[in-house]
């Protein structure tokens, strides 16, 4: 019989891509999503869907028991760094209280395999050229803190009821599935590659380069952009690892290569063939200068083999998905 995996936030961007990979790999999937930032259109047709809030511990545990779930992948969260600065309580409530609710549901339902989405934002301005899992954490915004606190809670829970976890610290996730079914749909984009896609398609008049005075070669922020399909594959590997009895672990997810904002903008101009306007503006509060992942551990322990480490493929899939929305 197929094993069932419960995916919170399965109607979201990374969640929907991961659901597709799980189903492809022979799992059954149960999605719990309240569609607050997710979309019905991103719910995989072969998944079982519950429109429910992760804060509703008793309902979620009922679903876990009824569906006989073997493991949980917890995506549902708020993810916008600037918003976390103006509305921190939303982030501590959704992200940190949210994980407590899901863990309580796991405890009630005796589920011990848990994959958790964390973020490179836990490193803040790490200072290191390449960031490994042992680089000290030092968040510089409430979003990063909300995820760091959640990581600790996930780890501590192991002693309480034997939960084994894989925690992923994502760097900058971008692009869309190559079949263009699953990508970023949000109407109020804040992520660079989505904004640049919208600018290419004239869905916005122009975009801003937020900060040109960072200590980086061209003065703009540097990030490690990872294609959402490669990241989703890592989640399937993690769940298989836990179901095989693997012990709790933590992994950075990125390609180990950084691109500046200017480089990303130029790449999007190249793949779209549109010379859209990118105006230089001030820094965004809470932004780090440079975040690049060392993913050696993910490759060696989970045998992760990234296939789409190419900024042009990332920009092109994001652009084509954006076009498919109009
Ligand atoms: N940027 C612009 N113009 C924009 C939007 C962004 O220049 O219109 C710049 C930002 O200043 C930053 C870079 O593009 O230098 C990337 O910004 P994003 O908003 O795309 O992503 P962030 O790095 O702020 O955050 C993302 C995720 C977080 C994660 C982080 C890890 O949203 O969850 O990557 O690197 F923690």
Q: How are the elements arranged and paired?
A:
Blueprint: E1 4-8, H1 13-24, E2 28-33, E3 48-51, H2 57-67, E4 71-74, H3 81-86, H4 88-109, E5 113-119, H5 142-161, E6 164-170, E7 172-174, H6 192-200, E8 206-210, E9 222-223, E10 225-227, H7 228-243, E11 249-253, E12 259-260, H8 261-272, E13 277-281, E14 290-291, H9 296-302, H10 311-325
Parallel strand pairs: 1-2, 1-4, 2-3, 4-5, 5-6, 6-11, 7-10, 8-13, 9-14
Antiparallel strand pairs: 9-12
Report on this model:
This protein is an alpha/beta fold. It has 2 domains: 4-174 and 225-253, NAD(P)-binding Rossmann-like Domain (Rossmann fold), CATH 3.40.50.720; 192-223 and 256-293 and 307-324, UDP-galactose 4-epimerase, domain 1, CATH 3.90.25. It is built from 10 helices and 14 strands. It has helices spanning 13-24, 57-67, 81-86, 88-109, 142-161, 192-200, 228-243, 261-272, 296-302, 311-325; strands at 4-8, 28-33, 48-51, 71-74, 113-119, 164-170, 172-174, 206-210, 222-223, 225-227, 249-253, 259-260, 277-281, 290-291. The protein has a 7-stranded parallel beta sheet, with helices on both faces. Strands 12-9-14 form a 3-stranded mixed beta sheet. Strand 5, helix 5 and strand 6 (164-170) form a beta-alpha-beta unit. Helix 6 runs parallel beside helix 8 and helix 8 (261-272) packs across helix 10. The longest helix has 22 residues, at 88-109. The chain is globular and about 55 Å long. The model has no long low-confidence stretch (mean pLDDT 96).
């Amino acid at each position: 019989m197929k094993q069932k995996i419960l995916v919170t936030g399965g109607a979201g961007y990374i969640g929907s891509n991961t659901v597709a990979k799980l189903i492809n790999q022979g799992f059954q999937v149960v999605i719990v999503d309240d569609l607050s930032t997710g979309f019905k259109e991103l719910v995989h047709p072969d998944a079982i869907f519950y429109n429910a809030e992760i804060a509703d511990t008793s309902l979620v545990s009922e679903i876990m028991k009824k569906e006989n779930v073997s493991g949980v992948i917890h995506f549902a969260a708020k993810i916008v760094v600037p918003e976390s600065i103006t509305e921190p309580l939303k982030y501590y409530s959704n992200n940190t209280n949210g994980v407590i609710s899901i863990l309580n549901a796991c405890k009630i339902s005796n589920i011990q395999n848990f994959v958790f989405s964390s973020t490179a934002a836990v490193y803040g301005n790490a200072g290191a050229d390449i960031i490994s899992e042992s680089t000290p954490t030092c968040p510089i915004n409430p979003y990063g803190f909300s995820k760091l606190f959640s990581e600790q809670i996930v780890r501590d829970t192991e002693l309480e009821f034997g939960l084994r976890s894989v925690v992923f610290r994502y760097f900058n996730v971008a692009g869309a599935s190559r079949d263009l079914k699953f990508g970023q749909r949000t109407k109020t984009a804040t992520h660079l590659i989505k904004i640049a896609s919208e600018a290419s398609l004239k869905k916005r008049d122009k975009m801003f380069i937020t900060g040109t005075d960072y200590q980086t070669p061209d003065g703009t922020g540097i990030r490690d952009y990872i294609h959402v399909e490669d990241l989703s594959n890592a989640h399937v590997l993690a769940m298989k690892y836990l179901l095989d009895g693997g012990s709790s672990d933590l992994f950075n997810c990125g390609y180990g290569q950084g691109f500046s904002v200017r480089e990303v903008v130029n790449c999007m101009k190249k793949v779209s063939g549109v010379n859209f306007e990118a105006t230089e503006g001030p820094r965004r509060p809470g932004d780090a200068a440079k975040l690049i992942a060392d993913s050696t551990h993910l490759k060696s322990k989970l045998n992760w083999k990234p296939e789409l480490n190419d900024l042009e493929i990332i920009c092109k899939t994001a652009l084509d998905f954006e076009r498919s929305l109009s």
